[in-house]
Amino acid sequence: MAIPLILPNLWFPPPESLYVTAMSVIGLSSLASAGYSEIKGKHMQYSKFLNVGVGVANKQKEIKLSSRNGMLLLYAPAFLVGLASFFLFPDQDFRFTLLGSALTVHFLKRVLEVLFLHKYSGSMALDSAITITMSYTLSTATMIYAQYLSRDFTEPSFDLKYVGVGLFTMGIIGNFYHHCILASLRKEGDKEYKIPQGGLFDLVICPHYLFEIFGYVGISCISQTPYAYAFTLGTILYLTGRSYATRRWYISKFGDKFPKEVKAFIPYVF
User: Fold this and answer.
1) Are 106 and 219 contacting, i.e. CB atoms less than 8 angstroms apart?
2) Helix, coil or strand: residue 124
3) For residue range 152-162, what is the model confidence (pLDDT) as tens digits?
4) Confidence class of residue 57 from pLDDT cuts 50, 70 and 90?
5) Collapsing DSSP states into helix, strand and coil, what is residue 121?
6) Tens-place pLDDT, residues 67-82
7) pTM of the predicted model, to two decimals?
8) 69: Cβ contacts below 8 Å, ≥ 6 apart
9) CB 150 within 8 Å of CB 90
10) Which residues of 54-71 are buried (b: 16+ CB within 10 A; e: fewer)?
11) In this structure, what DSSP letter does residue 204 have?
């Protein structure tokens, strides 16, 4: 009984906005559904899953982008939304500034990784790229707007924004570190997949997803709006399904060479 009594002290009251309420429900349910689809083998058509479960006829009909251009399409609009928030909503409080900064840095990091870090071996389906970029862009805009609508509300009794800054920092550093490990697996022109090693890859196959979750939990703690919590929960559910599917893909590709003790994304557990 203590937990339900504490929960209202952890977030701002929901704003009287049909849009934000609808986006909270749509975002959580769509991400949860996408995570379940990953577990069932119906993948978003990008990265190593591009040709998994796609028939020959469907492959021929698909419009594809280069992986580099596709990933830029995923992240650049959300980065621009975060950057624009400082001009569209000037003179906001410190929490709003922290949130806008975290979202902007999060997607700027991704854009820079696309341009200077990641190695590419294929293409990306245009419809998947559009779906993902709409999710990132709309969620970023909605999170900022929900924060703006909360400006006149009483602050939550438990102030989590500094905890959020710590979690976000840990998440973004850990995610970048493991992306560097993934990038180092391939030399120029190498298109073969390898089993990653080093860092937390010795314990889980998707530590970059684990740290991405830390980052989003940090963002939701900075924000403390119901929408931010809902989107973060949806992201956790999606990345759980994605991690499970990734581990299954590695086992199918490498068989007995894949170390069975390596979990999906929670060391020793899942």
Assistant:
1) yes
2) strand
3) 899 999 999 99
4) very low
5) coil
6) 899 999 999 999 999 9
7) 0.91
8) 124
9) no
10) eeeeeeeebebbebebbb
11) B
> How far apart are the C-alpha atoms of 201 and 195, rounded to whole Å?
9
Taking the C-alpha atoms of residue 178 and residue 211, their distance in angstroms, rounded to an integer, is: 9
CA-to-CA distance for 101 and 122, rounded, in angstroms?
32
In whole angstroms, give the CA distance from residue 140 to residue 164: 17
List, for residues 172-212, the tens digit of each pLDDT value: 999 999 999 999 987 766 677 889 999 999 999 999 999 99
Angle at 94 between CA 89 and CA 99, to 5 degrees: 70
Show the tokens assigned to 203.
């314990």
Sign of CA dihedral 133, 114, 232, 42: positive
Return d(Cα 14, Cα 203) in angstroms, integer: 39
3-class secondary-structure state, position 125? strand
Q: Which of 153, 116, 108, 130 is nearest to 63 (CA)?
A: 130
Q: What is the pLDDT of residue 61?
A: 65
